C-alpha cells in the first residue's frame, strides 16, 4: 500500500464544516437522499440517513430502496476520499484543501445487498483503502439502527 504516514489526529473545525457544506448542501442529490454527516476523520467517515416515505420502494413498504442504498454508499465513498485528500494535504489551508475536490468522480462501484434494509434510520460508513495520485479505492457499509450490516460496497474514484 505504499509508505505509511501518520494521519493527523483531527481536522480543523472549518475544514469539517466545509466538507459538511459541500456534502449536504452543494451536492443536491445528497439533499434528496437526506444524508447527514456524523463524523469526518482522516481514516473514516460516517453519516446517517432516515427512512422517508418518498424513499421507500414501491413494492416493499418500509424497506429502503436498493437505489437509495447504492447512491448513499457511493456518496460515502466520495466523502471518505475527500477526507483522505484533506489529510494528505494538511500543510495547506482548509479552504485550499476543500478546492481539491472539484475533479472527484466515481469510476467503478459494486454493492452487495446482504439483508433487507428495514428500519427508521441507517448508518453509513466508509474508509479509503488506497489513495493514489489518480485513483482512490474505498470500502463502504450500510448498517441498520442495531448495527447489523445490511449492504457492503467497494468503489474506485478518479482524484486527478
UniProtKB/TrEMBL annotation:
<dbReference type="Pfam" id="PF03061">
    <property type="entry name" value="4HBT"/>
</dbReference>
<comment type="similarity">
    <text>Belongs to the YigI thioesterase family.</text>
</comment>
<feature type="domain" description="Thioesterase">
    <location>
        <begin position="62"/>
        <end position="149"/>
    </location>
</feature>
<dbReference type="GO" id="GO:0047617">
    <property type="term" value="F:fatty acyl-CoA hydrolase activity"/>
</dbReference>
<dbReference type="InterPro" id="IPR029069">
    <property type="entry name" value="HotDog_dom_sf"/>
</dbReference>
<dbReference type="InterPro" id="IPR003736">
    <property type="entry name" value="PAAI_dom"/>
</dbReference>
<keyword id="KW-0378">Hydrolase</keyword>
<dbReference type="InterPro" id="IPR006683">
    <property type="entry name" value="Thioestr_dom"/>
</dbReference>
<protein>
    <recommendedName>
        <fullName>Medium/long-chain acyl-CoA thioesterase YigI</fullName>
        <ecNumber>3.1.2.20</ecNumber>
    </recommendedName>
</protein>
Amino acid at each position: 500500500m505504499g509508505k505509511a504516514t501518520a494521519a493527523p489526529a483531527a481536522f480543523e473545525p472549518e475544514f469539517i464544516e466545509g466538507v459538511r457544506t459541500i456534502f449536504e448542501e452543494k451536492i443536491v442529490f445528497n439533499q434528496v437522499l437526506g444524508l447527514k454527516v456524523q463524523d469526518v476523520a482522516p481514516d473514516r467517515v460516517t453519516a446517517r440517513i432516515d427512512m422517508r416515505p418518498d424513499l421507500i420502494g414501491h413494492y416493499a413498504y418500509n424497506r429502503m430502496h436498493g437505489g437509495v442504498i447504492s447512491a448513499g454508499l457511493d456518496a460515502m465513498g466520495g466523502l471518505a476520499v475527500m477526507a483522505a485528500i484533506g489529510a494528505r494535504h494538511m500543510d495547506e489551508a482548509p479552504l485550499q484543501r476543500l478546492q481539491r475536490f472539484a475533479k472527484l468522480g466515481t469510476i467503478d462501484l459494486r454493492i452487495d445487498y446482504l439483508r433487507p434494509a428495514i428500519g427508521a434510520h441507517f448508518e453509513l460508513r466508509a474508509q479509503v483503502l488506497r489513495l493514489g495520485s489518480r485513483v482512490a479505492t474505498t470500502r463502504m457499509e450500510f448498517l441498520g439502527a442495531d448495527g447489523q450490516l445490511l449492504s457492503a460496497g467497494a468503489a474506485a474514484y478518479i482524484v486527478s
